[in-house]
Amino acid sequence: MVHGRYGEFKVLVDGETVIDGGAFAALGVLPSGRRVVDAVRSTLSG
């Protein structure tokens, strides 16, 4: 885990961004846990 700027939400796998919360992250609107896990699984499975 790396702390980013206020309102920043990104999930990286091996330096590649797989989820980016975008502008809505500053408002507390984040991707669902399921969406994050699915994106990470997809990236890891190749």
Overview of this structure, please?
This protein has 46 residues and is of the alpha+beta class. The protein has one domain. It has one helix and two strands, in the order ββα. It has a two-stranded antiparallel sheet with strand order 1-2. A hairpin with a 2-residue loop joins strand 1 (10-13) and strand 2. The longest helix has 13 residues, at 33-45. The termini are far apart. The mean pLDDT is 91.
What's the N-to-C terminus distance? 22 Å
What spatial form do the alpha-carbon principal axes imply? globular
Overall pLDDT metric = 91
H/E order of the elements?
EEH
What value does the Rg take, in angstroms?
11 Å
The share of residues in extended strands comes to 15-25%
**Uncertain segments of ≥5 residues (pLDDT<50)?**
none
Spatially, the strands of the biggest sheet line up as 1-2
The main β sheet shows up as: 2 strands, antiparallel
Work out the helix count.
1
Helix content: 25-40%
**Count of individual beta strands:** 2
Total domains? 1
Structural class: alpha+beta
Could you give the topology of this structure?
Elements lengths: L9 E4 L2 E5 L12 H13 L1
Antiparallel strand pairs: 1-2
Give keywords:
46 residues; alpha+beta; two-stranded antiparallel ribbon; 28% helix
Short summary of the structure?
With 46 residues, this protein is of the alpha+beta class.
